[in-house]
Amino acid sequence: MTIDDCNIINLQKIADPRGNLTFIEGNRHVPFDIKRVFYLYDVPGGADRGGHALKTCQQFLIAMSGSFDVILKDGIKERRIHLNRSYYGLLIAPMIWREMDNFSSGSVCLVVASENYDATNYIRDFGDFMKTLKPA
Ligand code: TYD
Predict the structure, then answer these.
(1) For the segment 48-83, what is each residue's pLDDT rounded down to a tens digit?
(2) Closest residue by Cα to residue 3 from 53, 68, 38
(3) Is 29 a catalytic residue?
């Protein structure tokens, strides 16, 4: 997997004077069955989140409110993506290192995942991540 396998997906925005609406369906907007949803909120200024890779889990990140940056690393290339719309999502492939920073005040990051939480699916050390990609 490379960071080129991580794409911004433009979700439909149903504009309405009563308020806009966006929806996500598994195997339609995201290429997996949706198993889990979690969200990050009340992130203090200057905080970093993420800092891991997932062995098999795919995740789809949306800035539901406010904005933040996602830094993706595949061991060769690196990319910083600014998310700031409720109708754009970033699809992150397995075995991609991700970090999140630059959270705006009051921002909310929604994550839609292809797997239930499993601590053994995480690689939380960047050196271990690089070793897994390129075993000696
Ligand atoms: P962590 O993965 O460290 O958060 P982030 O990568 O966004 O900084 O998760 C923080 C804690 O929450 C950790 O103890 C694991 C727990 N957790 C769950 O129990 N279930 C979940 O679905 C997630 C994402 C985390």
Answers:
(1) 999 999 999 999 999 999 999 999 999 999 999 999
(2) 53
(3) no
Residue 39 Cβ < 6 Å to ligand 1? no
pTM: 0.96
**How far is the C-alpha of 77 from the C-alpha of 95, rounded, in Å?**
13
**What letter represents residue 71's amino acid?**
I
CB 115 within 8 A of CB 57: yes
Q: Is 117 in the pocket of ligand 1 (CB under 6 A)?
A: yes
Q: What is the number of the ligand 1 atom nearest to the C-alpha of 52? A: 6
- Which among 13, 35, 49, 52 is annotated as catalytic? 52
HSE-CB of 91 using CA atoms within 13 angstroms: 21
Q: Which two tokens stand for residue 2?
A: 């490379």
With the most atoms of ligand 1 within 8 angstroms of its CB, the residue from 39, 52, 58 to mutate is 52
The string of pLDDT tens digits covering residues 95-117 is 999 999 999 999 999 999 999 99
Q: Whole-angstrom Cα distance, residue 14 to residue 3? A: 30
Query: Is the CB of residue 49 below 6 angstroms from any atom belonging to ligand 1?
Result: yes
